[in-house]
Design a protein that fits this description.
alpha/beta; four-stranded mixed β-sheet; 2 helices
């Protein structure tokens, strides 16, 4: 079954991999983990993977060489990053200087102690000062409760 040691890949289409790379790498400080150019003759996709170096998750962004998929993000398509410290203004400024746009969150919960930034394709990244302490089932937690 699935456990905490498994790697997670979040895959999304992109309209412009160069713009996405500027935002995620120079803007948010993630690393380029892998990249490959697709081949139209094979119908393969241009691919960019970014994430924290050595992390258990990464974001895969693709553009088709023949069949392209237009990004269609909704206000609830969120990549939430739990910083466990206050969100620094300079981090938000760097993200916006590299193609991000600060937007109000669809769910006001994320505006409390956090900042929502739309990437160049319109997908939203939430930088929150919260920490993630609930990596155990509800039945095993002291006092119950639910994280968002």
């Amino acid at each position: 079954m699935i456990d905490a040691g498994h790697v997670i890949r979040i895959a999304r289409p992109s309209a412009d991999l160069a713009a996405a790379e500027r935002f995620y790498v120079q803007g948010l400080g993630l690393s380029v983990l892998f990249r490959v150019a697709g081949r139209a003759e094979d119908g393969t996709h241009d691919l960019l993977m970014v994430g924290p170096a050595g992390g258990n998750w990464h974001l895969e962004l693709t553009v088709g060489t023949i069949d392209t998929v237009t990004p269609t993000p909704t206000p609830e398509d969120l990549l939430v990053i739990y910083l466990a410290e206050p969100v620094r203004e300079e981090a938000v400024a760097r993200a916006t200087e590299h193609g991000g746009t600060v937007v109000p969150s669809h769910n006001p919960y994320w505006d409390l102690g956090g900042v929502t930034i739309a990437d160049p394709d319109g997908y939203r990244v939430v930088l929150t000062e919260r920490g993630w302490q609930y990596n155990t089932p509800l039945s095993e937690r002291d006092g119950g409760g639910a994280g968002s």
